[in-house]
Structures are given as structure tokens and as C-alpha cells.
Write a structure and sequence with these properties.
single chain, about 250 residues, two-stranded antiparallel sheet, 2 strands
Length: about 250
């Protein structure tokens, strides 16, 4: 169990939303780097640093590559040219823009991944259920969180079964496309069958339940965390406004 277990899932989400909104609005490289370092230290403290770095690298590598390709190598607006060869034109302004956008993307990705690693999905479903939200919302959150690992495991099982039957897919891009096509049909059909079975079971149990009912799982919460969530939600709105207001006043 992670060290952040006493934290309410809504507290983690509210703090992450406030940090991402303010950092994105500020657009300062040093602030983005500070937030990324803070996320990494928090992941180390929660014993989730290895998974965070691995997942973030898998997502950010192609994102940074596209930013560098679009803004760093084919920039046409910059005046300080570092190198030029044919259609490629590397400028200082293009590289700066690529770095700024890459850091903003990194803050969003790393903060989001950290939330998924710190929040227990069972606690999140229970928190939604205890919050007074419609039961359909809690079921939708639960179905989404629990369906993704199930679909990933089922996809691997389908691939292994097809390999045992000798389904030749080939190599390269064409082979990858054949594998996706062969696995997508049984995967979608099995997901539709699960949805039909679950709907019948929910209808038999009278979902959504009317009246009081007993909950088997509770989520620890405190008055301090509730106040902290309110402050974080206020910062989601006021933080970007405070950062962008001086620039708007100068334009006016």
C-alpha cells in the first residue's frame, strides 16, 4: 500500500488540477521544471518513481519528438538561424518554443500519471459513491477503471491463442496492422458481450438502488483535506487569472 493511502482521492485530484492549471498558464520553464522535480520527489517518497519514469518516458518521447520536429527543425518565423539545410531550418526561437511546449506537456502527463499511481481505484470508486453523485457516475468510473486492465489482459490472451493456431501476421508495419485487425474483432465482441451481461445483472439487482443502502468500503477523509480541496479548486480558477492578468492589462 502506498504511503499516500490516508489521502482522499479527491484531494490528490484537486491539488493536481491546481498545479497543472497554474503551471500551464504561467508558461515558465523554471516553474515547469520545479513542478516536474516535485512530482518526481513525491513519487520517490511514495515508492512509485520507477513506474512513473517508465510510463512518462513512453508517452513523452514521441510527444517531444513531434514538438521538436514541428517547431525546432522546420520553423519559418525565427530570425536567429542556427543551421539550415534545404527545407530544414533550426532557429533559436523554434527551439525555445519546442522546449516550452514540451515542458507544459510534461507537467500535464507527469501530474496525471502520478495521480493514477497514487490513487487506489477502489478508493476512487468508493469516494464517488460516498460523495452523493449519481450512482451512474460511480458505475461509469468503476467500469472504466476496471475494464482497461481486463481488456489489456484479454488482448494478450487473444494474441497468444492466435499464435498457437498459427495465424501468420508477418513483420513490419503490414504485420502490425494485421495483428491489430485480427485482435480487434474478438476484443470488441467480448466487450459487447460483457456489457450485455452486466446490464442484465444490474437490472436484476434494481440498479440504481433507491433508498438507504450499506457501503462495504469507506474512504478516510478529514476537515483539513476538505478545506484543502476547496482552496485547490479556487486556485484552479484564480491561479491562471492571477498569472495572465498582468499580460491582459498590458494589452489593454
Amino acid at each position: 500500500m502506498p504511503r499516500t493511502a490516508p489521502l482522499h482521492p479527491f484531494t490528490v485530484l484537486a491539488l493536481a488540477a491546481a498545479v497543472v492549471a497554474t503551471t500551464t498558464a504561467a508558461g515558465r520553464w523554471w516553474l515547469s521544471c520545479t513542478v516536474l522535480l516535485g512530482c518526481l520527489l513525491l513519487a520517490v517518497w511514495a515508492r512509485r518513481a520507477r513506474r512513473l519514469t517508465g510510463l512518462a518516458a513512453a508517452i513523452l518521447a514521441p510527444a517531444w519528438g513531434s514538438q521538436l520536429l514541428i517547431h525546432g527543425l522546420v520553423d519559418r518565423t525565427g530570425s536567429q538561424v542556427l543551421a539550415a539545410a534545404g527545407p530544414l531550418r533550426i532557429t533559436v526561437e523554434g527551439l525555445q518554443l519546442a522546449v516550452e511546449l514540451g515542458l507544459r506537456t510534461a507537467v500535464l502527463v507527469v501530474a496525471g500519471l502520478l495521480c493514477t499511481l497514487l490513487i487506489d481505484r477502489h478508493d476512487l470508486v468508493a469516494a464517488v459513491d460516498l460523495s452523493g453523485a449519481p450512482p451512474q457516475l460511480g458505475y461509469l468510473v468503476a467500469a472504466t477503471l476496471f475494464m482497461l486492465p481486463t481488456l489489456a489482459q484479454r488482448q494478450r490472451a487473444i494474441g497468444e491463442a492466435q499464435a498457437l493456431r498459427g495465424a501468420a501476421t508477418g513483420a513490419g508495419l503490414l504485420g502490425w496492422w494485421r495483428r491489430v485487425r485480427l485482435r480487434s474483432v474478438p476484443l470488441v465482441l467480448s466487450a459487447l458481450q460483457d456489457a450485455a451481461d452486466r446490464s442484465a445483472h444490474l437490472a436484476a439487482r434494481g440498479f440504481p438502488a433507491a433508498g438507504p443502502h450499506t457501503r462495504l468500503r469507506t474512504v478516510p477523509d478529514s476537515a483539513i483535506q476538505r478545506r484543502l480541496r476547496r482552496v485547490a479548486l479556487v486556485c484552479v480558477v484564480l491561479g491562471p487569472l492571477a498569472v495572465l492578468a498582468p499580460a491582459w492589462m498590458e494589452l489593454a
